[in-house]
Amino acid sequence: MKKEISNKFGTKAVHAGVKPDPATGAIMTPIYQTTTYVQRSPGDNLGYEYSRTQNPTRSALQESIAALENAKYGLCFGSGMAAIDAVIKLLSPGDEVIAGDDLYGGTYRIFTQVFAKYGIKFNFISLEDVSNIEKHITPNTKLIWIETPTNPMMNIIDIKGAVAIANKYKVMLGVDNTFATPYLQNPLDLGVDIVMHSATKYLSGHSDVVMGALATNNDQLAKDLAFIQKSCGAVCGPQDSFLVLRGIKTLHLRMQRHCENGEKVATYLAAHPKIGKVYWPGFESHPNHEVAKEQMTGFGGMISFVFKEDNQQQAFRVLERLKLFALAESLGGVESLSNHPATMTHGAVPKEERMKVGLLDSLIRLSVGIEDIEDLIKDLEQALA
Ligand SMILES: *Cc1c(COP(=O)(O)O)cnc(C)c1O
Known about the structure:
It comes from Roseivirga seohaensis subsp. aquiponti. This is Cystathionine gamma-synthase. The chain has 14 helices and 12 strands. It is of the alpha/beta class. The protein has 2 domains: about 10-250, Type I PLP-dependent aspartate aminotransferase-like (Major domain) (Aspartate Aminotransferase, domain 2); about 250-385, Aspartate Aminotransferase, domain 1, CATH 3.90.1150. Bound molecules: pyridoxal-5'-phosphate. Pyridoxal-5'-phosphate binds near residues 81, 104, 179, 200 and 212.
């Protein structure tokens, strides 16, 4: 039985996909730690056969994520990379992909070092002006892959503009919505075919689980992706599904605070005499601020900045001195993190590619957490002194 829930975000975050356990009435979805399901007679089962194909805890989570993205279908995977892996497996040798030139390092790596050798061609282009896509489309282009905001340069890509081009040429369009989360941005509402999440980040929100997700409204795509999910088997386990389901219940509250703290940290950094440039889409001076205002309901808690001099040593010194902002890969958890993309998250991107997009040696990326803002600013102040 499906609960009647409104289409308001907070209510969906708490209730979508979750129903009282039919056996006991337990309000929290049980962790169905089982591989298999007993059948009365061959084929006569309750809709579950084997946990690679379906698991009730995973089903609840998939329904929850689908609801948050206003999607008909949600599919969860063992990591964000496993979700991207499933999308690329929709393609065949000879197919071409157009992707932004400022992508998560792991995405760049799976494209260039895993899938390129299977005969899929990847074209990395600037998407600051999406009309650039049209110049690179060929009859073999089968997928356009976009991240917005981008990681770590915080560029904003015009989703509606990309949808118009994708529709004109009948090319599939996927958006990695990890940074914005469905709380700030719903790409499917704008006509995108597939939304992807590293649920490791904001969706789970507590830095305790690695997971990926896809959402789509397209019946055929959902079928094909479910086939890949079951055939290739990069599924998430029931424990992890439970943790993400639990994290999602507070996604809207956490995001509100991430956005508030993000704005204050970005404003503080922009006024600091040692800092050259702060990358955050909430600034009016951000090149695609208007697009961000149009397609997002807030600007998030991810911020990058460089020093007046591009000096890696200076960046390292600040990173070593930060106390509350732990130096660690990943993002989107309740605790604030700092990161040196050039040597950490984006170590797989060649230096000349990095430099082209402004990913300098002194660039620091912050994932601003939900701590008290006074303490976060104090920490930055002492580290930058
Ligand atoms: C972390 C991340 C990924 C990869 O997700 P994993 O869960 O680490 O496999 C993909 N895209 C973006 C934008 C990310 O931040």
